[in-house]
Amino acid sequence: MAAGTGGSGTRTRGWSAARIPAQEGRTAVVTGANSGIGYVAARELARHGAHVVLACRSERRGADAVARLLSEVPGAHAEFSRLDLGDLASVREFAARHVRRPVDVLLDNAGVMALPYGRTADGFERQFGVNHLGHFALTGLLLPALLRAPGSRVVTVSSILHVLGNLDPRDLDSARHYRRWLAYGRSKTANLLFTHELARRLDAAGADTVAAAAHPGYARTNLHTAGTRLEGRKAAERLATLRTRLVGQPAEAGALPSLYAATAPGVGQDSFTGPRFLMWRGAPGPSWRAPWTRDNETARRLWAASEELTGVRYELPEA
């Protein structure tokens, strides 16, 4: 399998949204597109001509995001479509609505971070269920649409905090011992292992769809305060908000690695793109990743468990 780097050298140095290639005639699905880096990514893809599907859980916030996008990019082609990644029935309904036409870009962006313990509609721990299993099911169900689009891409948004922990195969969804930040790190490791195994399978099938990953560094989004807000910890929420404002980069910058992985020429299978400066901020470039995120056996075991838990099997042609 070709080991991609997400771009190197002068090709990524100083890369900005202005360098996104023309997207006319292409369809992009962006999960979690009502705010933060998901909204910015959807807006910039639409600005360059793509028909963008904003896949969001809340109908009100999704409709508001489409209205905002159309006000910022008059004449853009954008639509809201409801998707709750914490409910596999919703994932199946969304895929059924969109699998009939080719999908050129699937940006698996939505996520939750460091929430108090809870379970999805299907009984999975929320961070593992939303961040990994929901996207695993969505990608598999949309795979026929991706394979019909020449040169399509699946970009999964991970995090530098994947370094917090490798998967525990005996406790994939942290049911035995829940620690919110460890569970978050493991879910982001799962994102990278999913990309690694999907890239291997696409190569083995001779498909020209690229599976890549990206991370935003430290971006100023509401992701950082969701957990403390849910628990009503006002002081901790204010502290997180202040820290994010002081050291985080704008969502416009945080979205660039995802946009690069989704659109730039030469993005390789299993590449990982992030901000250049200490993986924290700046223009997109190749990002370091923990060695365990390229472990073939762990990736296969996670894949098998994900198929079992979601009931979704990937149908890939013979090479």
Structural descriptors:
alpha/beta; 319 residues; disordered N terminus; Rossmann fold; SDR_fam; NAD(P)-bd_dom_sf; Oxidoreductase; oxidoreductase; 10 helices; globular
Q: What would you say this structure looks like, in words?
A:
The protein has 319 residues and is α/β, with parallel strands linked by helices. It has a single domain (21-216, 251-309), classed as Rossmann fold. It is built from 10 helices and 8 strands. Strands 3-2-1-4-5-6-7-8 form an 8-stranded mixed β-sheet, with helices on both faces. A hairpin with a 3-residue loop joins strand 7 and strand 8. Helix 4 packs parallel to helix 5 and helix 5 packs across helix 10. The longest helix has 26 residues, at 180-205. The chain starts with 26 loop residues before the first strand and ends in a 9-residue tail after the last helix. The model is unreliable at 1-10, 224-229 and 240-244 (pLDDT under 50). InterPro entries: NAD(P)-bd_dom_sf, SDR_fam. Keywords: Oxidoreductase.
